[in-house]
């Protein structure tokens, strides 16, 4: 009697019941205007995580000691953005209802909106910490209000002024930066000030969204809109350990596009970031 | 005084006024469920058409003798399928109103629906000739009624029974083939019977939609869903010359995905097919 | 309560108990001397089979009607060829003991030897039908007796003279062809004579091994040692339907190397061939 | 009435008359001895600049405020180096005659010679600032005096001793470095001393030539002869802002080879560098 | 005492003295106007010929029985077309002077002119048999008289009317085809009539030039200007065996561009074609 | 009379007799469990070293002044790990017997074991300096004791406790790090402490093994198991110059996998590292 073929992200092979966190994929990139492909991120990460160890020499922790369940990928409706976001919201809400931490793998950055809606429904005082190359603060983009380029504006519609803390931002149009000055807290280019934000938000529920293109394209070429001038891998690892001081009630990593990652190094980076993130935020 | 940098498909450098046909791109692939990338087709074809001649030794005709205008690409809304189709419909309607032939470069196959709506508005007795590997006849797909996999069903909603003539079909689920038997005329695998259909439709207004994946993937690897077992390049050229016997009032070629065309051969095929199509159908 | 993430080849989602056939991967390519990579075949095929239908318009059959179980991939020892073959043999023997048909996805061609050993243990009068570009009949290769280039010689060590029937062979050194004339039945270049062989072997237990490089590289570029001059996809489909007249007690397809399949067309071919093979040989 | 399809680099959509600067492509790489492909740079940059913003958060300036005209690409004669340089020289001279700044996109580095000839004809006291990994100071290369490897020696033939200021040089043969010590000012590996040079050249006419391979290949892999050990993107941005203190009367960026830029990150870098350069040097 | 590292094309490891034929590379593509890269052909073929056998099951001959010397690659001057052709001519003349058959691996098609000059100097009644997708008959191209697109016109300048026999031609501008009708013998699309030409030229000295893009791009994608609609691999093999009836005094294969051959299938085709050509023409 | 085609790594064209060091390739990757391809490293490095200079501006030395012989590649038995290691050991022993320095290009890291056996036979007090991302200290891996993941454990079997000095290690399972603490000297992440180790080992015979994946994947993407967080190119160059203070009696660089190096930057890095290593360690 043989077992079915189960594919999970590295070490996330616990049962749902015993798990403290649930990893799942949201393979959606319908609003990506430039170069699509992030829909393949979660599947590719599961496959390539085979080449990675569960043990982190950075944190001296091991994923084998932390119960995580991998719920696979949502089957999302391409071309109907509202429907897809609804699916993500419902799935996330179920995980939260069971008292577990949702850890979503995008997909384009817009998927964050679905997850934030579910988390915000439970935590009305939700704060958002946001690592990204792009401000993502447009009111609308190419006529769409639901877009990868508007997602943090849509999150702001929910949480309101001064609840969003952005780091690493190095791209946006002039109006986004101007609007941002009034409504969100933006640190351009790097993570300076992150520790102070973590201190300030201590004890409050936080959603953490990590657009991997905050990394420099030399480190992370496999993304739709590479923006030179980003942070290094070690700067990001440090920032993730800093973030572990927060009370994270939901998180995601997004914008890995394996189509543009011919050597596989971006997927390796994404896998290691996810490993470190799981080790850092699951208490 | 220098001129602006104008990029057109091979030889399509006539003015709008003098043109009999208008080539334009519809770079949309939001509903593509498997591998996106057809949004890059029209731009890539314009660039690579540089390597092609305007003269066809097959038809002994030259594009320099036929006035065509290249209107560039529509800027379509990603993630809002209805809006994008509306843009395509309006643009096509304008071309038709000016008495010119619309020749659209997709994008995913769903873009055909926008163009057919505009053409059907003028020609209520419209017939449709369809070359494809896939039946594209589903009622809905992953919860969406507007999808690359449903597009011919949506066209049928407009034109009704026995107005759609499919050739080369070699993939679909069982229910599509069954539904098709009642409502459309389907030739599996090849072009046998095409000449008879052309004869039968003589004088009637016809929309011709060519999904390039009707070609075998050895000839045309650069597409989202390659289906082995397709027609050869020469079989397609012959079929295009046969189709020239029809009264074509609108046409498109679609589903080239340059992302999966590393060697450029699929783009070369698409360019040559478009050259031959323009030479064949513009009277 | 969520389910674990199960990945199977297209439609092979039945339970082990109800299944008539068991698909499994043997991701091993340690002896490949030129370009490795076939170890990735089974995983890639599972992922890309998402783009394929369960229904075959060629055979008018549907995989949904045929109970198949996908047992996932063996975890084989790289660098220790004997150990890896032992693992394959033991796994195959278990499937046979349960009265099910083993359907292996290689891997390099040497994996066939492991499966044949298990099948031969039960069926001492085993015959072997072999589609390939290469004779694979060397006595040894670069000093190794267990090699992709010697595998059919090793199978002959088991089954003896005139039990192996090769088709499509178009590469080998002079001595292989000479040795082959004495000991096996070889048809060069194509499938002429296959129907007669099927007739002759009727009722006898047959192992069917399909090296996908029997296909022309235009159809199937994604393989370690491409050999121009091969059969077409339709010729192979026809041959598979012919083979369905045999009493197949074990089979495999091998030598897909996704590393050399940038466009994905070879994986699409391999998936479709496996679908057609399952539909053809499971009674 | 539709407009022709105009393709320009990001935001360079002003009329020729109103423009202060003219961007144009010199797609020539005939003398490239190792890996060709820089001929595709300008076209690829125009297409991919779609993914970039006109606003620079580094300089807090916006290309929308600066009138630039994109004159497209020269159609240069491949295989006849002298003829191609003559075409570049004539085109550049026209721009200078109209009182505008020529901004050329190479092509291989030799194209600089054509532009410098035109600029030097107007400014006999021309100074040259040169960022590069390679000294490019050979007297001849493989028997050719006009070569990417000799271009700065040819420029020296015009401007004479101590008028060329090189930065970032980390490759060359021993004789080049020795010759260079007598005739040009070379800073190896980095930009130390650039501010002093800018100070020294204040008010003098300067041609600025930027071989993008001065960047480390991790940042800029898409070039013909990658040289590890280069400067970072932020170091280059800083240097460009320093260079803005000069009186630049002509400039170019060169040696992007999209053929070796599978992920597109090098093109993204080149686009951003050109944006920053335009914002920095147009007064 | 170790030997130096010698790299030869498959089986061409005889000494110069004992060799009947000399294989050498002419890695030049300076005039290629569209996509360069053929300069890498000869080196790549030597490396990948490792995966091929010396024995041909088509001709039942073995390269081990035929003495061939591989002279490596010429080091040609990029950017100075005349100089490069002079180098090729001189090298070829040396081989002829030693009574051996020159077998050149291009490079772009223009390299043929250098070799033909040397052969014509010895054989003033030289005939030329030419397989190609392109007529290559322009008087000049982009202002250059020495170009891949003019090479057969330049050969005609030497040999005169009705000495050039073209097969497989499917691309050219209208004027080339018209000029060709007066001066050369052109068979479009295929090899029909080749046997008759061979019969007619029996006993006369013939230079045979094979542009591999005569093959369909499905078979041979790795070339600068792919032209769909070409011949199959088996058609080419047959034609090569037909050509063996000629008195070939010089020959070449050209236009393999490994840069566009990601899967390696085109290199495999080129290697096998060269093996079959050597087996066919060396008497 | 022409010379045979000799291919050597940059400048290593001296005769065996006059050479102080012998470069050779060990193209073996049979035990690589994740992504194979290092077998192509040495051949690719020889070809691409064409783009590199023999002169180092870092060390102000020139390879033309240092006699090195390139012995080509061993032809190793794939699939029989013991046999392959035996071949490497014998070849290395011959070089040592002739009083020359062996400089091996891997291949996977396991090839180091073959060379170390030969060197250890002559120098029983051998010390080992090891740069790597991975500890490679497992007792066995997937059932194999001879594996890329166990190679330093096997070396320890020979040399014993505290003779192995590791730098840059950032990956391994928890048990490897624990075992390592007892038996080897491990510096995680960087080269801190290297100078002290060099001082301590002064005068003792040292084998230096450099797994190129110690570099960050941004610098060196072309490797089987990329590990983000590595050292920079300049850090490695510095470390190599530090290592030149040792008495190196054998060395290797390994784990370049050209299959995953589409842009060629990793090969460029490997070539430059080898040039600098030869210049640094040959006395």
UniProtKB/TrEMBL annotation, chains A, B, C, D, E, F:
Which CDD domains does the record match to this protein?
A: Agmatinase-like_2 (cd11593)
> What keywords are assigned to this protein?
Hydrolase, Metal-binding
EC numbers: 3.5.3.11
Report whether Hydrolase shows up as a keyword of the record: yes
Show the stretches that span the lipid bilayer. Answer: none
Q: Which GO terms describe its molecular function?
A: agmatinase activity
Q: What class of enzyme is it?
A: hydrolase
Q: Which family does it belong to?
A: Belongs to the arginase family. Agmatinase subfamily.
Spell out the protein name for this chain.
Answer: Agmatinase
User: What organism does the record attribute this protein to?
Assistant: Acetobacterium fimetarium
């Amino acid at each position: 009697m043989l077992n079915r073929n189960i594919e999970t992200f590295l070490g996330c092979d616990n049962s749902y019941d015993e798990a403290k966190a649930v990893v799942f994929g949201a393979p959606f990139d319908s609003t990506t205007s430039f170069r699509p492909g992030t829909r393949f991120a979660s599947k590719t990460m599961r496959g390539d995580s085979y080449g990675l160890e569960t043990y982190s020499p950075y944190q001296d922790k091991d994923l084998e000691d932390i119960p995580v369940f991998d719920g696979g990928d949502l089957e999302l409706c391409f071309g109907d953005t509202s429907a897809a976001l609804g699916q993500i919201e419902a799935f996330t809400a179920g995980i939260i209802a069971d008292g577990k931490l949702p850890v979503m793998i995008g997909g384009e950055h817009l998927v964050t909106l679905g997850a934030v809606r579910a988390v915000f429904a439970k935590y009305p005082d939700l704060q958002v910490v946001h690592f990204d190359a792009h401000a993502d603060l447009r009111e609308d983009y190419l006529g769409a209000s639901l877009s990868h380029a508007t997602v943090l504006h849509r999150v702001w519609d929910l949480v309101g002024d001064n609840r969003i803390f952005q780091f690493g931002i190095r791209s946006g149009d002039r109006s986004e930066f101007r609007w941002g000055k009034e409504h969100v807290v933006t640190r351009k280019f790097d993570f300076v000030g992150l520790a102070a934000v973590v201190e300030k938000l201590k004890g409050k529920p936080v959603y953490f969204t990590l657009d991997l293109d905050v990394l420099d394209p030399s480190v992370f070429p496999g993304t739709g809109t590479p923006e030179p001038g980003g942070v290094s891998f070690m700067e990001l690892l440090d920032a993730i350990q800093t973030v572990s001081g927060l009370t994270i009630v939901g998180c995601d990593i997004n914008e890995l596009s394996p189509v543009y990652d011919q050597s596989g190094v971006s997927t390796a980076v994404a896998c290691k970031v996810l490993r470190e993130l799981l080790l850092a935020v699951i208490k």
